[in-house]
Amino acid sequence: MEPTVTISARHVVKAFGQGSSSIRALDDVSVDIRRGEFFTLLGPSGCGKTTLLRLIAGFEAPTAGEILLDGADITRLPPNRRPVNTVFQSYALFPHLTVAENIGFGLRMQRRPAAEVKATTERMLALVKLDTLAGRRTSQLSGGQQQRVALARALAPAPKVLLLDEPLSALDLKLRKEMQIELKRLQMETGITFIFVTHDQEEALTMSDRIGVMSNGQLQQVGTPREIYTTPMNRFVAGFIGETNFLAGTAGPGAVVLQGGARVVAEHDRTGAVTLAIRPEQVRIVPAGEDGAIPARVRDLVYFGTTRIII
Amino acid sequence: MAERGFDVARLPGFASIAIAAFLALYVPILTLVLYSFNAGNSVALWQGFSLHWYGDAWNNDAVKSAAVRSLVIATCASAIATTVATMAALGTTRRRAFRGQTLIYVAINQPLMVPEIVTAVALLIVFGIVKTWTGYQGLGYLILAHSAFCVPFAYLPIRARLEGMDLSLETAAADLYATPWQAFRRVTLPLLAPGIVAGAMLAFVISLDDVVITEFVKSGGQDTLPTYMLGQMRRAITPEVNAISTALLALTVLLLTAFFLLTRKRE
Amino acid sequence: MARAADAARRASDQRGWLLSLPALILLFLAASGPLIVVLIYSFLSPGQYGNVVWNFSLDGWRGILFSRDIFDDTLVLADAHLTIFWRSVWLSVMTTVITFAIGFPTAWFIATRPPAQRAMWLFLITIPFWTNLLIRTFAINEVIRNEGLLNSLLIWTGITERPIQIVYTDTAVLIGMAYVYLPLMVLPLFAAIDRFDLRLLEAGYDLYASRGQVLRRIILPIVKPGIVAGSILVFVPSLGAYVTPRVLGGGKNMMIGNFIELQFTQGRNWPLGAALSMMLLLIVMGALLIYVRAANRGTDPHG
Question: What are the average pLDDT values for consecutive 10-residue runs of chain C, which has 303 residues?
């Protein structure tokens, strides 16, 4: 059975500026995001991924195209009437409110009964393991704790979709790893659709159910991490995800002849000039003359913690 | 003497001039305060400590009504000025620069640029016309005049506060189901509050201190404390004026200290 | 769809105007609007008991420099007016010079204090800044008048036998204005010096400059925007001063501000008063224009 679609963007265009000087931040983007999945928008800065997120949240209106939530058009709905919440890159915690008040803010705005606000707040505090800090001001918290408050605040109203705008970028490496696991756990427990924006490919590969790779305002490829990694659609995706060596050559039957004359055995259906993309972990160093080997020279060794990259 | 390194920031004589400047600034003020406690009626001869000039000022009906008038005008003017300044600050910050914005800045800061005596004369003429037309002679003119020249003083701290505010906070509020009004009421306004209070206090002090415009705008019998004192200075000066000055001074210092504590918390 | 975005932007601009409107109305009613009336009045004829008669006349503007001779009705230069203008300009320039001479070392002193102390010194400058001008004028009057602190001290130490007459002279007005406007000079100077990078001084001394050369060649050129700002902030209110010359100068040592008032009271020449006000406003606007130019140059790295 086809999984149900939660968010659907259809031919979305977003242009900034006017006339000839306008820049297309999003250029005809269409994507379906399924219910309950962890979907990551991955791309270099300025590729339009944050713009797409802001359109889904309702902070900006598209120049053209539409956005559907569970089949209903929400393109013109203001953000305060969309069951979609955001975890901001800067967290945007209200400095004049306590941790608990921050978490309960959305529920209070929806005029839910006080008892419910209290109960949900406590549940959220437990969920992000901040029970002891409920009465603190947000300015007294560490970066990781602020991050958890931002998450709890966005989850408290039980949105249909949670948007996360590079939420881990401000954390140090160790904390980032912890939060990656934490985020995945929260997504599993709540079953809420997560749309996660990042420029960190490793983050994307480890956490996501599916990834949408973006560049120049266009969606280059959508697929599972494995699909994206092993069968990239184009050179940009191949180059952006993982380490890749690009070798120019000519396609022949069952193999590619490189410029140096070496033959690489490969299944393909192309002819003429091609570019061969090879992941470094697919390269083995073998004695010269072995079957299928390409002559190469080790030029330098770079120490890289647990693994070694051979250039 | 201990060996001192070459201090690049030291310029010979500067420290002495600075200390002298501070002394010159404070000796007259402190003398004035001191003589308000003089038992004798001289402002030169010290004849022992007494609070009787404060008593005299307190029992002087002219002083009392001037003080009340000063406070009423300052309260009304700072309330009006702060309200319109807050709105203007909200209108002129945190949005794309729009046509005419510079004009609004210039208009708001205009009272800071025009010499007081010119504004005073202008108001004398215009309010004179209105007075003969309407027959109304009340405090309204003074409140209106004070409100106007207090606007830039209220506007500046509020605007500074707004500019330092994180825009994503309001976005976050909207994301969490707050209507624009709720976002303003629950997020913007509480965060803006210190700026508004600071602006209101500056406006209050400025209104309380005004002499020139009040002197020209007031109708008969509408003395404020400063214009009352100005009138007294033409006659024989008694330490009663010192007592009034000291009281005003104390109020100013109090408000200023509060202002500094409020704005410092921001950093 | 693009039109929708445009409409949203227009609505935002409109909100900007709407929110500013109450302030603009208030300021028009009690600040800018009345100035237009003053301009109109400067072109009318004086009424016999003050106010104006609605006849177009240039006498107000002419009266700034000339007066009619009582005997043959010819225009002659009004010496009394010129004396007042000269006194106003001279005293304002001197006030600016004196406040700079004292204010620059003071601002430097504050800016070079350890950070913990700096706020305290700055606060000490700000208190007089916000204190009632009249009170401060009164306070300096208490010091310099004949029975005041200064003369008492001089007589007590035997330096003079009689009090030195200071009040009701130009010197008194000058001392008074320098006293009341000093904080206006110190604050912008401090702001400029505070931004000054002290390593530039090290570089200067490293390149063999003496203390005097460092001051002249490095410090003063770099803090120039602050100097211009402070000078304008002192010069402009000095030129329009009313309270200080009135209290310390007595009736005779008038400045433009008092002269304007005179036209609306005993002088009963409102058009002349209006013309004088407009002239003062023009001079002040000119000074502010110089300031804006200098300030813009200050931010331009190409000088």
Answer: 64 85 93 93 85 83 78 73 90 95 94 87 88 89 83 82 85 94 92 80 71 78 85 90 89 87 87 93 88 65 39
Give the residue from chain C lying closest to A75, CA to CA.
C1
From A64's Cα to the closest Cα of chain C, the distance in A is: 6
* Burial (0-12, 13-18, 19+ Cβ within 10 Å), B52: middle
Is the pLDDT at A129 greater than 80? The verdict is yes
Contact residues for C182 (Cβ-Cβ < 8 A; gap 6+): B21, B25, C99, C102, C103, C106, C128
Chains that touch C (3 or more CB pairs under 8 A): A, B
Flag whether C120 is in a domain. Answer: yes
Which structural domain range is residue B200 located in?
60-263
Specify the amino acid at residue C175: I
- The answer to whether residue B121 scores a pLDDT higher than 60 is yes
Neighbour tally for C208: CB within 10 Å: 7
Residues in chain B with CB shorter than 8 Å from the CB of A103 are none
pLDDT at A90: 85
C195 with C255, same domain?
Answer: yes
pLDDT above 60 for B64: yes
Alpha helices by DSSP H, listed for A11-70, are: 49-57
Task: Give yes or no for residue A164 having a pLDDT over 80.
Answer: yes
A92 within 8 A of B171, measured Cβ to Cβ = yes
What CA–CA distance (Å, rounded) separates A46 from A53? 13
pLDDT category of residue B236 using cuts at 50, 70 and 90: low
- A288 confidence band (pLDDT: 50, 70, 90): low
Q: In this predicted model, what pLDDT tens digit does every residue of B138-179 receive, in sequence order?
A: 899 999 999 999 999 999 889 888 888 888 888 899 889 888
Which of B172, B179, B186 has its CB closest to that of A92?
B172
Q: Is there a contact between B172 and A88 if contact means CB atoms under 8 Å apart?
A: yes
Rounded to an integer, what distance in angstroms lies between the CA atom of residue C177 and that of residue C92? 8
Backbone angles phi, psi at A272, to 5 degrees: 80, -160
Distance CA A88, CA C166 (A): 68
Domain extent at residue C106: 78-299
pLDDT > 90 fraction of chain A, expressed in percent and rounded:
32
Q: Are B38 and C231 in contact (CB under 8 A)?
A: no
Asked whether residue B128 is assigned to any structural domain, the reply reads: yes
Do B72 and B127 belong together in one domain? yes
**Rounded Cα gap, residues A291 and A201, in angstroms:** 34
The reply to whether C286 falls in a domain is yes
pTM of the entire predicted model? 0.79
Q: Is residue B2 part of a domain?
A: no
pLDDT of residue A12: 92
Whether residues B243 and B158 share a domain: the answer is: yes
Is the model's pLDDT at A128 over the cut of 70? yes
Per DSSP, the residues of C152-204 read HHHHHTTS-SS----TTSHHHHHHHHHHHHHHHHHHHHHHHHHHS-THHHHHH
**Position of tokens 């016309």?**
B129
Name chain A contacts of B169, Cβ cutoff 8 Å: 92, 94
Do both B65 and B21 map to the same domain?
A: no
Q: What is the residue type of A261?
A: G
Q: How far is B111 from chain C (nearest CA, A)?
A: 7
Number of C-beta neighbours around residue C56 at 10 A: 7
Q: Do the beta carbons of residue C140 and residue B45 sit within 8 Å? A: no
B146 Cα to chain A: minimum distance (Å): 33
B118 contacts C240? CB cut-off 8 A: yes
pLDDT at position A115 over 50: yes
Q: What secondary structure letter does DSSP report for B99?
A: T
Summarised one tens digit per residue, pLDDT across range B47-63 is: 778 888 888 888 888 89
**Is B197 part of the contact surface with chain C (CB cutoff 8 Å)?**
no
> C264: domain CATH number?
1.10.3720.10
